[in-house]
Design brief:
single chain, 439 residues, alpha/beta, Rossmann fold, Dihydrodipicolinate Reductase, domain 2, Alpha-Beta Plaits, 3 domains, 11-stranded mixed β-sheet, 6-stranded parallel β-sheet, 14 helices
């Protein structure tokens, strides 16, 4: 039994911050029974301490001066939930230098400055929890750090952004265009006023960078992760995907390729019978293939006030248990021992092998398909299937093809050549396919 309660300082009293306070208050007895002590929110720092948050705190808890948290020797754990790079990074580092443990949901900060932050945590002998940074309530971090610790991770496929998944689900179910669905998502609060991070795959890249470090013991530059967003996906592509037996998802992919690691994010066609195909709406999911565990699937809310607060409080309890035992670093912060983590240059996207879906609008005239297939063949791209319909869209006829395994470099070279043909009405659309049944 712990001899005292654990004092927590909270920086950022927005949606997740207020959810964290609410969860600690609502489940105080449950937490005490499982921890052997209480979690006490001693101070909350925010620039705005007047706007109602839907939770009540005792007088004197709220402050606009973050130093009342960072310099308070009685505060054991600092929770950073303000987001962004600065001043969040400075606050976290100061908290650690003052021997305080830290919990954060700040995926962007960890993806860009993780090496420095984890390094300082090691120097100061403090713990750091970041479960809420990837997948909201889904225990991805703990699974990779602890549950699968004896596994070589062969591959990871993840739907890691709820906004993008919601948009693609609505486009699929209601046959609406991207712009219309995005507007609806913004109106109901599922998409930000500026949705760039979500729809361009930047948010997903932040999460994948963290996952790569935990899975392979490698530090990666965010810009080295190949990334495409979903803005170019059309209802026409979704319809053809359905005819071919696929759904389109924004997928984060990581895989071990001999001595290198493949990492990419882009719209991906996956078969109807793939477990990720059924992940709809704003849900997140991750499919992990380990050499011993084999297939592991995690699914749940990837964002939102209470789901994310659940992950934050999980980290608080983990750290509180270590405080009670007088220990730190029982589990390495990034799964691997620090001296085993090194930098890596990811497998260049040009060298990636994949199956492909092509859609091209062409003039309805004889010999067009043979000209296109000839160019593909010249660049070592073998066609698996063809859909050629007589219907005309905007005066052109669509041709849809899928390929056997091909190299990205060859595909991009062929596409540039095809797009220059006088019979092509608009640039060829490309979507990569993940399907174990294809060769």
């Amino acid at each position: 039994m712990m001899s005292r309660d654990i004092n927590v300082g909270l920086i950022g009293f927005g949606t997740i911050g207020s959810g964290t306070v609410k969860l600690i208050q609502d489940n105080e007895g449950l937490i005490r029974n499982r921890l052997g002590a209480g979690l006490v929110i001693k101070k909350i720092a925010d620039l705005d301490i007047e706007t109602p948050r839907g939770v009540s705190v005792e007088k004197g808890v709220l402050t606009t001066d973050v130093n009342e948290i960072l310099n308070d020797p009685e505060i054991d754990i600092v929770v950073e939930l303000m987001g962004g790079y600065e001043p969040a990074k400075s606050f976290i580092l100061k908290a650690m230098r003052n021997k305080k443990h830290v919990v954060t949901a700040n995926k962007a900060l960890l993806a860009v400055h993780g090496n420095e932050i984890f390094g300082v945590a090691g120097e100061e002998n403090v713990n750091m929890g970041f479960e809420a940074s990837v997948g909201g309530t889904i225990p991805i971090i703990k699974t990779l750090k602890e549950s699968l610790v004896a596994n070589n991770i062969k591959s990871i496929f993840g739907i890691l952004n709820g906004t993008a998944n919601y948009i693609l689900t609505k486009m699929t179910d209601e046959k609406k265009a991207f712009d219309a669905v995005l507007k609806e998502a913004q109106e109901i609060g599922f998409a930000e006023a500026d949705p760039t991070y979500d729809i361009e795959g930047i948010d997903t890249a932040h999460k994948l960078a963290i996952i790569l470090s935990l899975s392979y013991g490698k530090s990666v530059r965010l810009d080295d992760i190949y990334r495409e967003g979903i803005t170019s996906v059309s209802p026409q592509d979704i319809e053809f995907a359905g005819e071919l037996g696929y759904k389109i998802k924004l997928l984060a992919i990581a895989a071990r390729r001999e001595d290198s690691i493949e990492a990419r994010i882009h719209p991906t066609m996956i078969p109807f019978d793939h477990i990720l195909s059924s992940v709809n709406g704003n849900f997140n999911a991750i499919h992990i293939d380990g050499d011993a565990a084999e297939s592991v699937f995690l699914h749940g809310q990837g964002a939102g006030m209470m789901p994310t607060a659940s992950a934050v409080v999980s980290d608080l309890v983990d750290i509180a248990r270590d405080i009670a035992k007088g220990i730190w670093g029982r589990v390495p912060l990034r799964s691997y021992m620090d001296d085993e983590i090194d930098d890596i240059t990811l497998l260049p996207m040009d060298d990636v092998l994949a199956n492909y879906y092509f859609r091209v609008s062409v003039v309805d005239s004889p010999g067009v398909l043979s000209r296109i297939s000839g160019i593909l063949g010249k660049h070592n791209i073998s066609i698996s299937s063809v859909i050629q319909k007589g219907r005309k869209l905007d005066g052109a006829v669509p041709i849809v093809m899928t390929t056997h395994k091909s190299r990205e470099r060859d595909v991009q070279t062929a596409l540039r050549e095809i797009n220059k043909l006088d019979v092509v009405c608009e640039d060829m659309m490309l979507i990569r396919i993940v399907d174990e049944k294809l060769t």
